[in-house]
């Protein structure tokens, strides 16, 4: 036992000095992450407990900013919109992305062309996407105008000016832009499935849909977990689409947390309230990342 411990201890310095060039090259990135990200995060959390207005002030007031935050109707609408957008985006992105990937995985003709077309919207900025869909959904010359011009005079489709469904108009633009990326991630996962599995399923007479649900999808768990993290992080940061399409309107019907934070910090000049909202957004991100890290690394260590 002593001999084994001594040998392991002697190997540690050797492992420490392996790949020295790579470790030295990573130092600037590590320092930047520690100073900028960690330092900025701690600074934001600390000053969320102050009554900072135009400039940061170390005048601590406890949880008052958080009480004001959660008593604000604007913040509650922003949270409700984020939940609706998030749940719908998760479900539809995964379902549509997987179905498109499964279709492309059939080795169809012009696969590269279709893949490029589906992925192209992701290359656009969210501002451009928001403006494009603002025009498409405009009742004067968008979908409603086209359908009425075709003879259906009673057709009505104006989600961006309807407080009850405005968040779904934003959701359409988000799905159009992001589904292509999800499709490519799913397609990469499907291409990693051994062809022998499909052959064995066909020999056993298992229908294709059962093969996907009970065999293929469980084998693609890492792909699904990574995709969920990517989608969830994009949901929490939702801002550009809202600003480009509705600017939070009509009224405050399409407010989201990121826009609330921006308005509090730069329009209302209330840094303390903005910091409190930012801290809540950080908490939402941690709620997503911690289970992912546990499943990815904790499960791997147990295995």
From TrEMBL:
It is a multi-pass membrane protein. Gene3D superfamilies: MetI-like. InterPro entries: ABC_transporter_permease, MetI-like, MetI-like_sf. It comes from Hoeflea alexandrii. SUPFAM superfamilies: MetI-like. Residues 79-292 form the ABC transmembrane type-1 domain. Its main location: membrane. This is ABC transporter permease subunit. Belongs to the binding-protein-dependent transport system permease family. Keywords: Cell membrane, Membrane, Transmembrane, Transmembrane helix, Transport. It is found in: Cell membrane. The keyword Transmembrane applies. The chain crosses the membrane at residues 21-46, 82-104, 116-136, 165-190, 211-236, 275-294.
């Amino acid at each position: 036992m002593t001999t084994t411990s001594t040998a392991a201890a002697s190997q540690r310095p050797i492992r420490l000095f392996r790949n020295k060039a790579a470790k030295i090259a990573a130092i600037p990135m590590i320092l930047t992450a520690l100073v900028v990200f960690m330092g900025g995060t701690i600074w934001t959390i600390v000053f969320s407990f102050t009554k900072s207005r135009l400039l940061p002030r170390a005048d601590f007031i406890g949880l008052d900013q958080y009480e004001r935050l959660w008593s604000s109707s604007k913040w509650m609408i922003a949270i409700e919109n984020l939940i609706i957008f998030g749940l719908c985006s998760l479900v539809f992105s995964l379902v549509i992305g997987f179905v498109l990937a499964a279709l492309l995985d059939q080795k169809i003709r012009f696969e590269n062309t279709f893949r490029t077309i589906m992925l192209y919207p992701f290359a656009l900025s969210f501002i451009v996407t928001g403006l494009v869909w603002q025009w498409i959904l405009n009742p004067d010359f968008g979908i409603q105008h086209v359908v009425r011009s075709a003879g259906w005079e009673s057709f009505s489709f104006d989600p961006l000016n309807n407080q009850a469904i405005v968040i779904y108009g934003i959701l359409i633009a988000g799905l159009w832009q992001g589904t292509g990326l999800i499709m490519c991630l799913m397609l990469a996962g499907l291409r990693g499935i051994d062809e022998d599995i499909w052959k064995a399923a066909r020999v056993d007479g298992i229908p294709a849909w059962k093969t996907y649900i009970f065999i293929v999808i469980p084998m693609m768990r890492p792909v699904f977990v990574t995709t969920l993290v990517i989608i969830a992080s994009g949901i929490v940061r939702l801002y550009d689409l809202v600003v480009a399409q509705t600017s939070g309107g009509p009224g405050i019907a399409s407010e989201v947390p990121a826009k609330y934070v921006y308005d509090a910090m730069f329009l209302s000049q209330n840094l303390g309230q903005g910091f409190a909202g930012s801290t809540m957004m950080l908490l939402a991100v941690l709620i997503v990342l911690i289970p992912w890290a546990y499943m990815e690394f904790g499960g791997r260590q147990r295995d």
